[in-house]
Amino acid sequence: MTGLTFDAPTVIRTKRDGGGLSDAAIDWVIDAYTHGRVADAQMSALLRAIFLRGMTTAEIARWTAAMIASGERLDFSDLRRDGKPLRLVD
C-alpha cells in the first residue's frame, strides 16, 4: 500500500464525475473493501458510477490485479488424475 490517504466518498465522486481512478485509489478501494473499511453501500455506489462512466483499459487492468492480489491464491500444481498431472487453464 502507498502512503496516500483515500476515502470512499472521494473515490466515488471522482468516478461519478467522470474522472479516472489512479492505481493507488483502485488499490486502496479494493483493500479497504475486502478488509471491511468500505461499506457495501459505498462499493455499490462506486460500481454504479463505474457502470455509468466506464473504465479505461488501464483501470480495468489495475482493478483486476488488485482483486487477484486481495485474495488467497490456490495452488493446483499437485492435482493429478490417474497419476498424471492435470493440465491447467488460466
What does the model show?
- The protein has helices at 8-16, 23-34, 40-53, 57-70, and strands at residues 80-81, 84-85.
- With 90 residues, the protein is mainly alpha-helical.
- The protein is 54% helix and 4% strand.
- The protein has one domain (8-72): Transferase, Pyrimidine Nucleoside Phosphorylase, Chain C (Transferase, Pyrimidine Nucleoside Phosphorylase, Chain A, domain 3).
- The protein starts with 7 loop residues before the first helix and ends in a 5-residue tail after the last strand.
- It contains 4 helices and 2 strands, in the order ααααββ.
The total count of helices amounts to 4
| Number of E strands | 2
Q: Helicity, in percent? A: 40-55%
Question: What is the percentage of strand-forming residues?
Answer: under 5%
CATH class: Mainly Alpha
Largest sheet: 2 strands, antiparallel
Architecture (CATH level 2) name: Up-down Bundle
The 3D shape can be described as elongated
Give the SSE order as H and E letters. Answer: HHHHEE
- The radius of gyration over CA amounts to 17 Å
Task: Write the CATH homologous superfamily.
Answer: Transferase, Pyrimidine Nucleoside Phosphorylase, Chain C
- Strand arrangement in the largest pleated sheet: 1-2
In short:
It is built from four helices and two strands. With 90 residues, the protein is mainly alpha-helical.
Key attributes of the depicted protein:
Transferase, Pyrimidine Nucleoside Phosphorylase, Chain A, domain 3, 4% strand, mainly alpha, 4 helices, single chain, elongated, 90 residues, two-stranded antiparallel sheet
